[in-house]
Design a protein that fits this description.
mainly alpha
Length: 170
Protein backbone atom coordinates (compact mmCIF):
# COMPACT_ATOMS: atom_id res chain seq x y z
CA UNK A 1 0.00 0.00 0.00
CA UNK A 2 1.41 3.30 -1.04
CA UNK A 3 1.30 6.58 0.75
CA UNK A 4 -1.31 7.84 -1.69
CA UNK A 5 -3.68 4.91 -0.99
CA UNK A 6 -3.34 5.37 2.76
CA UNK A 7 -4.11 9.09 2.49
CA UNK A 8 -7.18 8.49 0.29
CA UNK A 9 -8.58 5.88 2.74
CA UNK A 10 -8.11 8.26 5.66
CA UNK A 11 -9.66 11.14 3.76
CA UNK A 12 -12.74 9.31 2.42
CA UNK A 13 -13.51 7.14 5.46
CA UNK A 14 -14.77 9.98 7.67
CA UNK A 15 -16.97 11.20 4.82
CA UNK A 16 -18.53 7.73 4.39
CA UNK A 17 -19.08 7.43 8.16
CA UNK A 18 -20.82 10.83 8.15
CA UNK A 19 -23.07 9.80 5.25
CA UNK A 20 -24.10 6.59 7.00
CA UNK A 21 -24.75 8.42 10.28
CA UNK A 22 -26.80 11.13 8.53
CA UNK A 23 -28.93 8.54 6.73
CA UNK A 24 -29.68 6.61 9.92
CA UNK A 25 -30.42 9.77 11.91
CA UNK A 26 -32.59 11.14 9.09
CA UNK A 27 -34.43 7.84 8.78
CA UNK A 28 -35.06 7.72 12.53
CA UNK A 29 -36.21 11.36 12.54
CA UNK A 30 -38.64 10.80 9.70
CA UNK A 31 -40.09 7.79 11.54
CA UNK A 32 -40.47 9.84 14.72
CA UNK A 33 -42.18 12.74 12.93
CA UNK A 34 -44.64 10.44 11.17
CA UNK A 35 -45.47 8.79 14.48
CA UNK A 36 -45.99 12.13 16.27
CA UNK A 37 -47.53 14.23 13.48
CA UNK A 38 -49.87 12.19 11.28
CA UNK A 39 -50.28 13.24 7.66
CA UNK A 40 -53.47 15.10 6.89
CA UNK A 41 -55.76 13.44 4.37
CA UNK A 42 -55.89 15.17 1.01
CA UNK A 43 -58.75 17.67 0.63
CA UNK A 44 -61.83 16.37 -1.08
CA UNK A 45 -62.57 18.17 -4.35
CA UNK A 46 -65.79 20.19 -4.53
CA UNK A 47 -67.74 19.34 -7.64
CA UNK A 48 -70.58 21.71 -8.42
CA UNK A 49 -73.28 20.70 -10.79
CA UNK A 50 -73.92 23.21 -13.57
CA UNK A 51 -76.97 25.37 -13.02
CA UNK A 52 -79.54 25.94 -15.73
CA UNK A 53 -79.48 29.38 -17.30
CA UNK A 54 -82.82 30.40 -15.81
CA UNK A 55 -81.49 29.72 -12.29
CA UNK A 56 -78.38 31.78 -12.96
CA UNK A 57 -80.52 34.64 -14.22
CA UNK A 58 -82.80 34.48 -11.20
CA UNK A 59 -79.80 34.49 -8.85
CA UNK A 60 -78.90 37.93 -10.27
CA UNK A 61 -81.82 39.30 -8.35
CA UNK A 62 -84.15 41.98 -9.50
CA UNK A 63 -81.59 43.64 -11.78
CA UNK A 64 -82.05 41.02 -14.49
CA UNK A 65 -85.82 41.35 -14.25
CA UNK A 66 -85.54 45.13 -14.25
CA UNK A 67 -83.32 44.94 -17.35
CA UNK A 68 -86.03 42.89 -19.06
CA UNK A 69 -88.73 45.42 -18.21
CA UNK A 70 -86.52 48.34 -19.29
CA UNK A 71 -85.64 46.58 -22.54
CA UNK A 72 -89.30 45.89 -23.29
CA UNK A 73 -90.19 49.51 -22.61
CA UNK A 74 -87.33 50.68 -24.85
CA UNK A 75 -88.61 48.52 -27.70
CA UNK A 76 -92.20 49.70 -27.15
CA UNK A 77 -91.18 53.37 -27.06
CA UNK A 78 -89.03 52.86 -30.16
CA UNK A 79 -91.98 51.40 -32.03
CA UNK A 80 -94.19 54.26 -30.84
CA UNK A 81 -91.61 56.84 -31.92
CA UNK A 82 -91.23 55.27 -35.35
CA UNK A 83 -94.95 55.74 -36.07
CA UNK A 84 -95.59 58.95 -34.19
CA UNK A 85 -95.79 62.51 -35.42
CA UNK A 86 -93.69 65.03 -33.57
CA UNK A 87 -94.41 68.71 -32.93
CA UNK A 88 -92.65 71.19 -35.20
CA UNK A 89 -89.60 72.93 -33.76
CA UNK A 90 -87.44 75.37 -35.69
CA UNK A 91 -84.21 74.73 -33.78
CA UNK A 92 -83.92 70.93 -33.62
CA UNK A 93 -85.42 67.89 -35.24
CA UNK A 94 -87.45 66.25 -32.46
CA UNK A 95 -87.46 62.83 -34.11
CA UNK A 96 -83.66 62.71 -33.76
CA UNK A 97 -83.98 63.63 -30.06
CA UNK A 98 -86.47 60.78 -29.60
CA UNK A 99 -84.19 58.31 -31.41
CA UNK A 100 -81.21 59.36 -29.29
CA UNK A 101 -83.23 58.93 -26.09
CA UNK A 102 -84.38 55.51 -27.26
CA UNK A 103 -80.84 54.44 -28.17
CA UNK A 104 -79.47 55.39 -24.75
CA UNK A 105 -82.47 53.79 -23.05
CA UNK A 106 -81.90 50.52 -24.89
CA UNK A 107 -78.11 50.45 -24.37
CA UNK A 108 -78.43 51.04 -20.65
CA UNK A 109 -81.20 48.48 -20.36
CA UNK A 110 -78.70 45.94 -21.69
CA UNK A 111 -76.06 47.28 -19.31
CA UNK A 112 -78.40 46.46 -16.43
CA UNK A 113 -77.79 42.77 -17.24
CA UNK A 114 -74.17 43.17 -16.12
CA UNK A 115 -75.02 44.95 -12.88
CA UNK A 116 -75.28 41.77 -10.72
CA UNK A 117 -71.73 40.85 -11.73
CA UNK A 118 -70.03 44.01 -10.47
CA UNK A 119 -68.69 44.82 -7.02
CA UNK A 120 -71.25 47.54 -6.24
CA UNK A 121 -74.46 46.48 -7.97
CA UNK A 122 -76.75 48.81 -6.02
CA UNK A 123 -74.66 51.86 -6.88
CA UNK A 124 -74.29 50.98 -10.53
CA UNK A 125 -77.94 49.96 -10.94
CA UNK A 126 -79.16 53.12 -9.22
CA UNK A 127 -77.07 55.35 -11.46
CA UNK A 128 -78.24 53.53 -14.58
CA UNK A 129 -81.88 53.87 -13.49
CA UNK A 130 -81.43 57.56 -12.71
CA UNK A 131 -79.72 58.07 -16.05
CA UNK A 132 -82.52 56.39 -17.95
CA UNK A 133 -85.13 58.44 -16.11
CA UNK A 134 -83.31 61.78 -16.25
CA UNK A 135 -81.64 61.61 -19.66
CA UNK A 136 -83.93 59.45 -21.75
CA UNK A 137 -87.06 60.56 -19.93
CA UNK A 138 -86.46 64.25 -20.48
CA UNK A 139 -85.49 63.65 -24.11
CA UNK A 140 -88.68 61.64 -24.63
CA UNK A 141 -90.67 64.46 -23.03
CA UNK A 142 -89.04 67.10 -25.23
CA UNK A 143 -89.56 65.06 -28.39
CA UNK A 144 -93.21 64.27 -27.72
CA UNK A 145 -94.36 67.65 -26.35
CA UNK A 146 -91.87 70.22 -27.64
CA UNK A 147 -91.65 71.66 -24.09
CA UNK A 148 -88.10 72.55 -23.03
CA UNK A 149 -88.80 73.05 -19.31
CA UNK A 150 -86.88 69.89 -18.23
CA UNK A 151 -83.83 70.37 -20.49
CA UNK A 152 -81.59 71.32 -17.55
CA UNK A 153 -82.05 67.82 -16.05
CA UNK A 154 -80.78 66.02 -19.17
CA UNK A 155 -77.02 66.56 -18.55
CA UNK A 156 -77.43 65.30 -14.98
CA UNK A 157 -78.85 62.10 -16.45
CA UNK A 158 -75.79 61.83 -18.70
CA UNK A 159 -73.53 62.20 -15.66
CA UNK A 160 -75.52 59.43 -13.96
CA UNK A 161 -74.84 57.20 -16.97
CA UNK A 162 -71.10 57.90 -16.66
CA UNK A 163 -71.12 57.21 -12.92
CA UNK A 164 -73.05 53.98 -13.50
CA UNK A 165 -70.43 52.78 -15.97
CA UNK A 166 -67.62 53.72 -13.57
CA UNK A 167 -69.32 51.85 -10.72
CA UNK A 168 -69.71 48.86 -13.04
CA UNK A 169 -66.01 48.95 -13.95
CA UNK A 170 -64.64 49.44 -10.45
Amino acid sequence: MSLYDTASVLMTAPVEILKITANTVGGVMSQITTAVVPKAPPPTPVIMEPLPLWQLASSGGYYVRLAGVLGASAVALGAYGAHSTFPKDDKIELKEVFERANKYHFIHSLAMLGVPLCRWPKTSGTFFMLGIAMFSGTCYYLALTGDRSFNKVTPIGGICFILGWLALAL
